[in-house]
Structures are given as C-alpha cells and as structure tokens.
Amino acid sequence: MNHELDKTRIPAHIAIIMDGNGRWAAKRGLERSYGHQAGVETVRRITAACTKLGVKYLTLYTFSTENWNRPSDEISALMGLVLSSLEDEIFMKNDVRFRVIGDIARLPADVQKKLHETEEHTKDNATMTMVVALSYSSRWEITKAVQDIVTDVKAGKTSEQAICEDMVSKYLQTAFMPDPDLLIRTGGEVRVSNYLLWQIAYSELYFCDTFWPDFAEEDLYRAIANYQSRQRRFGKTEQQIEDQNKLANNSTR
C-alpha cells in the first residue's frame, strides 16, 4: 500500500496511543511484560517506516500519569524496558532525534539519566524527531502551563493581557514541535485517554482494532491513506477549502 500513498501529503506529525500490549500477551497466556517487549519491536519497525515516508515528528504515548496506579511489578518491568530499549541503533541508524515529554521527575533516577543521555547523544539527528510521552498526561501538562504562566505574570515577565492561545502553546511540553496532523490509537478502544488534549484540537483521529505488537507497516500506511482521504477544514466550510485550493493551484501555474 506504500506506493499508493500521496507522498506530497504525508502527515508531518503522527501521534500514536500504543494500546493493546497487555491484551496481546494475555491472549497468548503470557505475562503482560511480554506484550510490552513485543511492543518495542513494533516501535522499531514503525520508526523506520515513518522516516522513510518523510514524517518529521512521531510522538508515542508510552506511560501515562495514570499508569502509576498499575501493579508495582508491571511498573518496574516497564521502567526496565525503557532503559533497555533506548538503544543507539534505532536512532542513529535512522537519523532520529530523541525527545521526552512528561513529569520526568517522578521516574527512577537511572531512567532519568538514560533519557537525558539519549536526548544529548541524538540532538544533531535531523531526519525525524521521536517524542516519547513518559509519565505524561494532558491535564497535568495544561495545569503546569497555567501555573508557569501565573508565576511569570507575578514576576513581571509577562502580563495577563498577553495571555492567548499562542502563549499557552509555548508553555506546553510540546512547544518545540507542531501539533499532530494524525492521531492513531491501536487496540480497539475509541478514546484519547488524556493524551495531547490541547494539541489534537484539529488532528485527524484514526482508531483500529489491531493490538500494538501486531501493528505493521501496512497498518501505518492504511492509517495514512485514511488521513489522506479526508478534507481538513479547520472550522471552515467545504466550499471555502475548495476555493482556497483552487486559488493556490492557480497561483502556482
């Protein structure tokens, strides 16, 4: 299906909720940790596919703030998996820069150290940026942004009158990248689970039943093809978008 995609309309930023690891393992009579391990292999495949397609940002929902409520043994296994999966190969081989968003201070010290080292080591890679949302929730992020704005207003660094949507965006964890064009959720659930709530205001949403460990390159291409079949209007009417496209086409002739 890759050859059927319009290469001029590849989403610049794809965000993914990688759901279904535990259920994938349970169906096979395995511990949930095996599903997470299998999910890492999918990350490698999808990262490589995205770089080849020309995607500029890939944001992966890895561990939410709410996931801290999971059994302690599963959390420990997940933290260990984070450490072992941050290999240079996946980033250096594909010229991918690594970034992390979330309440990183809550993570174990060795995990924090490895995250910072990987960010530093890959900072000059330019083909694509992989962003891992770790100990992240959108409500936490927005609350922190409000707190930081209030702090700066009190310190005289900005004013209440200057507060606008653009300012709020600049105080978010994702200020360094554009909002997602496409949000994919695997695993059959149809919700966004406190993920990038501000940023996906006009993202195209795609849900599929495939568990994340089984999500293949063809599934990615299918999601992008679905995205390309839609007309992105950003609040405008269909006629306005058609007129806008005609004007753009005429200006390039």
Automatic annotation (TrEMBL):
It comes from the Bacteria. Its EC number is 2.5.1.-. CDD domains: Cis_IPPS. GO terms for biological process: polyprenol biosynthetic process. NCBIfam families: PRK14830.1 (NF011405), PRK14838.1 (NF011411), uppS (TIGR00055). Belongs to the UPP synthase family. Catalyzes the condensation of isopentenyl diphosphate (IPP) with allylic pyrophosphates generating different type of terpenoids. This is Isoprenyl transferase. The lineage of its organism: Bacteria, Pseudomonadati, Bacteroidota, Bacteroidia, Bacteroidales. The gene is uppS.
